[in-house]
Specification:
Elements lengths: L1 H22 L4 H6 L3 H18 L6 E5 L14 E6 L15 E2 L12 E7 L8 H11 E12 L4 H13 L17 H10 L2 E9 L8 H6 L2 H9 L6 E8 L22 E2 L6 E2 L8 H4 L1
Parallel strand pairs: 1-2, 1-4, 2-3, 4-5
Antiparallel strand pairs: 5-7, 6-7, 8-9
Length: 291
């Protein structure tokens, strides 16, 4: 009996630790990080990109999944838009956000082909299963519907700093620049996932080229790197932004020809000059001969 109780305690402790670090990824830390100088710098760039793209999207229903404190749909022309958070972590959202509902990203409460736009601001990096999240997005989007995604680029100053912090954390030194719950997804990797789900990426861009600094003076000091980065090292931006369209390949049924057209034979007409019968058709004779 004592042996079984000990096993149960070990299993519960392992399950608790596994759920805390692997399954439940709270967006609260990321929302708090957005209030820092580097977070505000990134927020201003992302909102500018979202405003440009969502203004050209038309339809009836739109959804923002994740980061309810980020107003990425403020410039959207779709009348019915909702903002959703993960149902497990929904209590951590800010009181002033435009939150409408709690929803699990891997099981959205929407019917098939019912949404025209889905926006994922850093949602895949906090999802317990980013593949399942994208499959859900593909399911709820109508044909020619749009998905807009933003994420952190692992091949950047911020990404390298985060990798170094994760390596230091193994030895007991914790000095994270980004929230530790962030699970990087590369830009090329994400494009491959979208291609497998019949999405066509029609817009992509990188931004936020400054180093990993957290003071307003240093953020303003390195602001010149944004213009230089767009020209000289565009793929090394700390944040990427892309938009994709759901393509549905149609088909055209070719029905069999059941009835064949009848071929008319040539009509024999008598010749005028002789009493012999000619095989010339009447439609090729002059009008005076036909009369």
């Amino acid at each position: 009996m004592k042996h079984n109780n000990a096993i149960c305690c070990v299993v519960q402790a392992f399950t608790h630790s596994f759920m805390d670090h692997s399954i439940i990824r709270s967006p609260a830390s990321l929302a708090d990080w957005l209030q820092t100088p580097a977070g505000q710098y990134m927020t201003s760039w992302e909102i500018e990109q979202f405003d440009k793209v969502v203004a050209d999207v038309f339809g009836f229903h739109g959804l923002q999944l994740g980061l309810s404190s980020l107003p990425v749909l403020r410039n959207c022309r779709i009348r019915h838009c909702w903002v959703a958070e993960n149902q497990v972590n929904g209590l951590h959202t800010q009181a002033g956000s435009a939150l409408a509902l709690f929803a699990d990203s891997v099981a959205l409460p929407y019917a098939d082909q019912s949404l025209d736009l889905v926006v994922l601001p850093h949602t895949l990096e906090l999802s317990i299963d980013p593949h399942a999240t994208l499959r859900e997005v593909e399911r709820v989007l109508v044909p020619e519907g749009r998905v807009i995604i933003s994420g952190f680029n692992p091949l950047s100053f911020w990404g390298l700093r985060q990798r170094r912090s994760q390596w230091y954390a193994r030895f007991g030194f914790s000095n994270y620049f980004l929230p530790p719950e962030i699970d990087f997804i590369g830009y090329r990797r994400l494009r491959d996932w979208l291609k497998l789900l019949s999405f066509e990426v029609d817009r992509g861009r990188f931004g936020c080229y400054i180093p990993s600094v957290q003071t307003p003076s240093l953020v303003a000091k390195f602001a010149w790197m944004d213009k230089a980065g767009d020209r000289w090292w565009p793929i090394l931006g700390s944040v990427y932004f892309l938009a994709a369209v759901k393509r549905v390949r149609g088909m055209r049924l070719i029905s069999p020809v059941w009835k064949h057209a009848k071929v008319r034979s040539a009509k024999t007409v008598p010749s005028v000059n002789s009493g012999k019968v000619s095989r010339t058709t009447s439609k090729h004779l002059p009008q005076e001969e036909q009369s």
